[in-house]
Design brief:
The complex is a heterodimer of chains A (about 280) and B (about 200). With about 280 residues, chain A is of the alpha/beta class. Chain A has seven helices and twelve strands. In chain A, helix 1 packs across helix 2. Helix content of chain B is about 25%, strand content about 20%. Chain B is built from five helices and nine strands; from the N terminus they run H-E-H-E-H-H-E-E-E-E-H-E-E-E. In chain B, a hairpin with a 3-residue loop joins strand 7 and strand 8. Classes of the chains: A alpha/beta (about 280), B alpha/beta (about 200). The interface between A and B is large, with 44 and 38 residues.
């Protein structure tokens, strides 16, 4: 007797998928608005991408090719285990190549390679509410969104300038969607914010513990909040990638020895490997 | 219960629902784009196959359905949907999560359906309009999901739908989302879409 458990396709039961699918459709119809959903317990702890996993499980079909990245890397624990989870429960093909993937689940990066119309990007989100650290009460933040009352967010950015001389927020940098909802792009580096604007790919966001789903349809205007005299600036790196020599990409700092040696390399491992000749 | 009420729906409930959902998601995220949808089964008339597939993929005990006059008059339609989805019928349009309109001439106005609330704009009706034909010409539309602008039309439609949909857009983020269900293809106009020009 084999003890291999048999799962429903992509783990979740059909009623859960229907409920999540309805939330996804509302999220697409109201770009940037956080739709509440009845998040389920998943066989992994909160903080490991349970929101993203539930969205992916509800979207995924047998013909999809799934890629999972964690901070740009395909080979870290979180990415490997989520990829294995869907190999086991949905039997879908997986890849590390951005170009080959139809669904990409991501924790905190957008791939360097531009995404296409036939791709779906699923973000894992820890805190979906951009106003949460300014106003802890859900009843209040909900009303602030309803009234489009975003002055507090500008005060926060202004305080950055007053204290540091510039907007010091470098990740989870707040965005405004189609001139209406202020949205948390999840903790991606602000370097990636411009990639969200008018992206040909559908972008879905799932927050498991906080029970929220939101979305950016393709070709949606996304503006990073700023001031006329302190415009949004993308993070710049003075050096190219230490491995592949790429410029204009997001770099991670890697400590190489115990004598202060360090290397700046592409955070997107697939992009870097492909540039170095595809020895993945 | 009539014989037709227990006609089968998706051959594979999980994969069937997934394929239909992906068509609806594609349509909703690219407004006006005509998207193939193959139900693979025949529901009792006058419910069309695409509308039936969408409801069976997405509706359940949490989502009251509202059926317009011609659909409500054919008892087997309600039986069929109740059997496959477990959804109850909504007494009025504004109590529905999904509504299906088979006869555009006698359809209630879009404003008669649930619009959501300022705090929860998602608590609104998704209105499925059964149509005979979807065409890539007609309204010029723009908004999220559309690169520049696009053209879309369908027949038959309620006479003043252009005006009604403009009012619907004016209520954003409140309002209803429309799905046009042709015989084997669908298209959607979410509340975020703007009609630039009617033709």
């Amino acid at each position: 007797m084999t003890a291999t458990p048999i799962y429903n396709f992509a783990y979740l039961d059909e009623q859960t998928k229907r409920m999540i699918r309805r939330a996804i459709l509302k999220a697409i119809a109201i770009p940037g608005y956080q739709v509440p959903f009845a998040s389920r317990e998943m066989p992994m702890p909160y903080g490991w991408g349970t929101g993203g996993v539930q969205v992916t499980a509800s979207v995924l079909g047998p013909d999809d090719v799934l890629k999972v990245i964690d901070q740009g890397a395909d080979d870290t624990t979180n990415a490997v285990s989520i990829r294995k989870f869907f190999e086991k429960t949905a039997g879908v093909a997986t890849t590390t190549r951005t170009r080959e993937a139809t669904v990409i689940q991501t924790r905190h990066r957008i791939p360097e390679e531009p995404l296409g119309e036939s791709q779906i990007l699923v973000y894992q989100v820890p805190i979906p509410e951009p106003l949460r650290f300014l106003e802890p009460r859900e009843t209040e933040t909900r009303q602030m969104h309803a009234l489009e009352d975003y002055g507090l967010m500008h005060v926060k950015l202004y305080e950055d300038i007053a204290r540091h001389g510039h907007i010091a927020t470098t990740y989870a940098y707040p965005i405004k969607v189609e001139g209406r909802y202020v949205m948390d792009p999840s903790p991606i580096p602000k370097f990636d914010n411009p990639k969200m604007d008018m992206s040909p790919a559908l972008q879905l966001f799932g927050a498991g513990r906080e029970q929220r789903i939101y979305a950016l349809p393709p070709y949606t205007q996304v503006i990073s909040l700023d001031f006329e005299d302190h415009p949004f600036e993308r993070t710049k790196f003075d050096k190219p990638c230490g491995l592949c020599g790429a410029t204009g990409v997001y770099l991670d700092e890697v400590v190489t020895d115990d004598r202060g040696g360090r290397l700046f390399v592409c955070s997107d491992t697939d992009y870097c490997e492909e540039r170095r000749g595809g020895q993945a | 219960m009539s014989q037709s009420a227990i006609q089968p729906a998706f051959a594979d409930a999980s994969r069937g629902a997934q394929a239909v959902f992906r068509s609806v998601m594609d349509a909703m995220s690219r407004p006006g784009r005509i998207t193939p949808l193959d139900a693979g089964f025949a529901p009792p008339a006058p419910l069309n196959a695409a509308a039936a597939a969408i409801l069976i993929a997405l509706a359940d005990f949490e989502t009251p359905l509202w059926l317009d006059g011609p659909l409500a008059r054919h008892g087997e339609v309600a039986e069929f949907l109740r059997f496959h989805t477990g959804a109850k019928l909504a007494p009025t349009p504004d109590a529905a999560a999904f509504a299906v309109i088979a006869d555009p001439a006698s359809a209630p106005t879009l404003g008669a359906f649930a619009q959501g609330t300022p705090d929860y704009p998602d608590r609104s009706t998704t209105v499925i309009l059964q149509v005979e034909r979807l065409t890539p010409d007609g309204w010029q539309i723009a908004g999220p999901g559309i690169n520049g602008h696009a053209h879309f039309g369908a027949t038959p439609l309620p006479g003043d739908l252009t005006h009604q949909f403009k009012n619907n857009r004016a209520r954003f983020p409140l309002g209803v989302d429309l799905i046009f269900a042709g015989p084997s293809e669908i298209a959607a106009l979410p509340r975020s879409t703007r009609i630039l020009e009617a033709r």
